[in-house]
Write the structure tokens for this entry.
Amino acid sequence: MKQCQLTIPSVIYAGQGSIAKIAEIIDKERAENILIFTDKGVKNAGLCDAVERVCARVSYKVIDDLTAEPAVNDIERVITEAGGTKIDLIIGVGGGSVMDASKLASIIMGADYTLRNLLKNSSIAKKHIKTIMVPTTCGTGSEATCNAIVAIPEKESKQGIVNNCMIPDYVILDVNMIAKLPPKIIASTGVDALAHVVECFTSKKATVLSDTYARQGACKIFRNIRKAYNNAADLEAKSEMMIGAFYGGVAITGSGTTAVHALSYPLGGKYHIAHGVSNAILFAHVMAFNKDACIDRLAQLCDTVYPELSNKSVDQKADYIIGEIAGIVKDTNIPITLKEFGVKDDDLDFLVQAGSQQTRLLVNNCKELSLDDIRYIYKKVM
């Protein structure tokens, strides 16, 4: 077995009602001043109420004007807004954008470097404030990763900042936080989580450790995403999705996503397509393109998720997984082309160039992508 590493959050609480564990964390960390990051949607849905009730015993501040898919200036603004007070603990309550901003704040507040510095060299980062992540979707996996993604407006794309010091200190996976999640969000974030586990399992950097989480995450998500989407009352399916998304995040720290995420970044950066949706549009097409280079891995994943298909050939198993990916996107009513987002044929050259620059992820892909290959994939979804 080759040497490998996996870095995961120190403490994970899971189960209905586990949000109350924040009180124990506050006591353990002797926190007196807490900063809560969230967004208007989460705040207006009342999902922050339980967190604020627990934090009411100490001094706390809520920043709730984070934008979806935040750009560099958005992150800089909220961190500036939060400055001026000593913060003992940061709590991120929301989806990937909120949690990414929370993790960035934990390494920038009190530092002698800036976010722009980190975009050039993320290795200089150090954690200054401990964090608690409370996901309110079932898909981004940000609560488990050392990554934070920000949009770069001048490049019309996105960039990941990666450093192990951003691994959250505490994670709370409470299904009550996604109990009323709209089906549309279950779909897009759930397929994002599915992309995490499949990409990580087929990544060049996959290890025996990341494989364990990717396999189990795949089981939970493939088997439960349609149930969670179709039945708002199925908390068991939603809980499985939440755990599966967390496993996907853990797999990312040991392996890494590949061409699906790489090619989706320009779609979010220029056209502001939601991250999960852009991944979903590309997902099956990228895996079909990769099939000949990862057919055995796809078959192994099929054996794990669908053991009832064990008598099928390797080729049939790989096709089944790719077909299930496409079927889930269709069954959850996610768009399958870029037309409705205003992407035109004339934009193809930009997409090819911008996508090819996502080398941090493309090097993980099991199959090298030429510019013509990238063009071929984008044309499939135009």
